[in-house]
Design a protein that fits this description.
384 residues; alpha+beta; Rossmann fold; 3 domains; seven-stranded mixed sheet; five-stranded parallel sheet; 22 strands; globular; binds uridine-5'-diphosphate
Length: 384
C-alpha cells in the first residue's frame, strides 16, 4: 500500500517524507504519536492569542544555502538576530560572553587591555569554547575563563544536565563559545529567524503532498512490529518491505531490554501576563540562580504584536520514560553512546530500516543540520 513509512513528523521525518514523495514518487505514510505534526518545533496560539512554542524556543539559523533554499519553499522568514542575556545578580549580561560583556564586567579601561590580549591570543572574531579558554595559562585570560565558567556555565549546566560542564560532551558547551567580537547575537550564522507564520504552517506545507498521508495520534508501537524471529517489519500485522525511517528513541523499539537510554527532559511552565512587556528580551538565561534555566518571552521571538505577553520557564529533569514525559536531549557520553550502539545494532537485521534524528541517532542536532541530514538520507534511498 505504501512505499515508505516515516515515524515521527518533526523536522527529520517531515523533510524525509517530502523528499521521498516528491523526488522519488514514493507513497509515504507518516505516523506521529503526538496529536499534531511538527515534533518539538510545534507552535500554536495560546488561549490569549500569543504564538508560543509548546516545546520550548526554537530559533532557526543556518549558513547552509541549500537547506535554507529548501525550507524557503515552504515558508517566508521573519529575519532577526536572536540575542540572549544572562541574569547574573542584578545585571543582565550578553551571552555568548563577548567583548560587550567584557566591558560590562570589567569596565572600559581594564576591558580595553584584556580585549587586546584576547585578540592577539585567539584572533578577532574567534569563537572559543569555554573549556578551551580554561586551558589557557595566562593569568588574566584564566581570570576571564573563571568568570565565564562560574557565572555563565556552571550552574546553568548543572541544572540542564545534572552534571558539570567538564563532565558533559564538550561539543555541548561548545555550542555557546566565548566570542571575540562585539556581536551580541546568539548565533553566528548568515540566516537566522523564524518562519514568518510559525513553524506549524511550515510543517503543514512540507507534508502537503498527494503522496504523503499523515496519521497523527498514532503510536507506531501499536501498528508496527519489528519481528526479530522473522527479521521483518510488520505493519498492521502484515509484512512491510519498503523503507522505514524511524525518528523516535531506539531503545523503545526493543522494550528497553538493555536498560533505558538516558535523556534529559524539560517541564515547561507557561504564564500569560496582562502587561505588554515582561523582560524586554526574547530569552533570559538564569545562569547563577533559580531552579529554571531560562525564561522565553515569545513576542520577542516571533515579532508578534500583542497586548499581553506570554512567557515560559524551563525546568530540566532526568527523563524516566513515564507516561507524558518527553525526551528532549540525548546525554552523550562514552557509556551512553555504547548503550545506544547496542540498540542501533539490533536494527541492522531489518533491511531498509533507518534511524534518523535527535532521538533515534542519540545526537544533538539543530534544525538546519537535521533538515540537511533528512534530505540526504531520503535521497540515498532512491533504490531502497
Ligand atoms: N550553556 C550554559 N549557560 C548558558 C547557555 C548555555 O551553561 O547561558 C550551556 C549548557 O550546558 C547548555 C549548552 O551550553 O546545555 C548549550 O546551550 P544551547 O543554548 O545551545 O542549548 P539549547 O538551546 O539547545 O537548549
Amino acid at each position: 500500500m505504501y512505499d515508505a513509512i516515516v515515524i515521527g513528523s518533526g523536522i527529520a521525518g517531515a523533510a524525509a517524507a517530502r523528499v521521498l514523495a516528491e523526488e522519488q514518487n514514493k507513497s509515504v505514510l507518516v505516523l506521529e504519536k503526538k496529536a499534531h505534526i511538527g515534533g518539538n518545533c510545534y507552535d500554536e496560539e495560546d488561549a490569549y492569542g500569543v504564538l508560543i512554542h509548546r516545546y520550548g524556543p526554537h530559533i532557526f539559523h543556518t549558513c547552509d544555502e541549500e537547506v535554507y533554499a529548501w525550507l524557503s519553499r515552504f515558508t517566508d522568514w521573519y529575519a532577526f538576530g536572536h540575542e540572549v542575556v544572562a541574569k547574573v545578580g542584578e545585571k543582565l549580561i550578553p551571552v555568548p560572553f563577548n567583548l560587550n560583556t567584557l566591558r560590562q564586567v570589567y569596565g572600559e579601561e581594564k576591558a580595553a587591555a584584556l580585549e587586546e590580549k584576547l585578540k592577539s591570543t585567539f584572533g578577532e572574531g574567534a569563537r572559543v569554547p569555554i573549556l578551551k579558554l580554561r586551558e589557557q595559562q595566562d593569568p588574566e585570560i584564566q581570570a576571564i575563563a573563571d568568570y565565564v565558567y562560574e557565572n555563565i556555565f556552571l550552574k546553568y549546566t548543572m541544572k540542564q544536565w545534572g552534571q558539570k560542564p567538564e563532565e558533559i560532551d564538550p561539543a555541548v558547551t561548545g555550542r555557546v563559545p566565548v566570542v571575540i567580537s562585539y556581536d551580541n547575537r546568539y548565533f553566528g550564522d548568515k540566516y537566522q529567524g523564524m518562519p514568518r507564520d510559525g513553524y506549524t504552517p511550515m510543517f503543514e506545507k512540507i507534508l502537503d503532498h498527494p503522496l504523503i498521508e499523515v496519521r497523527a495520534g498514532v503510536d507506531a508501537r501499536d501498528v508496527m512490529e519489528l519481528s526479530e524471529s522473522m527479521g521483518k517489519v510488520l505493519l498492521y500485522g502484515e509484512e512491510f518491505s519498503g523503507s522505514v525511517i524511524y525518528t523516535g528513541p531506539v531503545d523503545e523499539l526493543f522494550g528497553c531490554r538493555f536498560g533505558r537510554l538516558p535523556y534529559r527532559s524539560l517541564r515547561f511552565d507557561f504564564e500569560h501576563l496582562d502587561i505588554p512587556d515582561y523582560q524586554g528580551h526574547s530569552v533570559v538565561n538564569y545562569t547563577v540562580s533559580e531552579e529554571f534555566t531560562r525564561i522565553t518571552e515569545f513576542k520577542y521571538l516571533t515579532g508578534q504584536e500583542t497586548e499581553g505577553t506570554t512567557i515560559v520557564r524551563e525546568y530540566p529533569f532526568a527523563y524516566t520514560g513515564a507516561e507524558g514525559e518527553i525526551p528532549y536531549y540525548a546525554i552523550m557520553n562514552p557509556e551512553n553512546n555504547k548503550l545506544y550502539e547496542r540498540y542501533a545494532a539490533l536494527t541492522e537485521q531489518f533491511s531498509h530500516f533507518h534511524l534518523l534524528g535527535r532521538l533515534a541517532e542519540y545526537k544533538y542536532y539543530n534544525i538546519d543540520a537535521m533538515a540537511g541530514k533528512a534530505i540526504a538520507l531520503a535521497r540515498s534511498l532512491a533504490k531502497d
